[in-house]
Amino acid sequence: MKYFVIGDEDTVLGFSLVGVFGMQATTTQQAMQAWEKALENPEHGIIIITDEVANLIRSVVNRYLFSETFPLVVEIPSPNSKQGPPDLRSLVNQAIGVSL
């Protein structure tokens, strides 16, 4: 199983340093292209997407968050996010839908 990240330049670059491939997206069109690219490869079991990019294609992301079983979608805060950085426990709780 592989990860795929979609987000701003800094997020994609940061994840690439640990071997996670991804695509930068700043527009709705780029976000949709990145999303489709992530779904092309069945080995991409986890899609990591920043909240700002997810908001550009919210209906598509929500369809996978709430109804699809694969791949797992993990929404992370953008570096410029208005909300403070969440703790790891809350990110995991959101990703798996279970309160730990």
Q: How does this model look, in words?
A:
There is one protein chain. The protein is α/β, with parallel strands linked by helices and 100 residues long. It has a single domain, classed as Rossmann fold, CATH 3.40.50. It is 45% helix and 22% strand. It has 5 helices and 4 strands. It has helices spanning 9-16, 28-40, 51-56, 58-66, 88-96; strands at 2-7, 21-24, 44-50, 72-76. A 4-stranded parallel beta sheet has the order 2-1-3-4, sandwiched between helices. It is globular. GO terms for molecular function: proton-transporting ATPase activity, rotational mechanism. Belongs to the V-ATPase F subunit family. Keywords: Ion transport, Transport. Pfam families: ATP-synt_F.
Summarize the helices and strands and which ones pair or pack.
Blueprint: E1 2-7, H1 9-16, E2 21-24, H2 28-40, E3 44-50, H3 51-56, H4 58-66, E4 72-76, H5 88-96
Parallel strand pairs: 1-2, 1-3, 3-4
Distance between the termini: 24 Å
Low-pLDDT runs: none
Give the overall pLDDT as a whole number. 86
CATH topology: Rossmann fold
* Structural class category: alpha/beta
The largest β sheet comes out as:
4 strands, parallel
Tell me the series of helices and strands, N- to C-terminal: EHEHEHHEH
Strand order of the largest sheet: 2-1-3-4
What fraction, in percent, of the residue positions are helical?
Answer: 40-55%
Number of domains: 1
InterPro entries: ATPase_V1-cplx_f_g_su, ATPase_V1_fsu_sf
Family: Belongs to the V-ATPase F subunit family.
GO molecular function: proton-transporting ATPase activity, rotational mechanism
Keywords: Ion transport, Transport
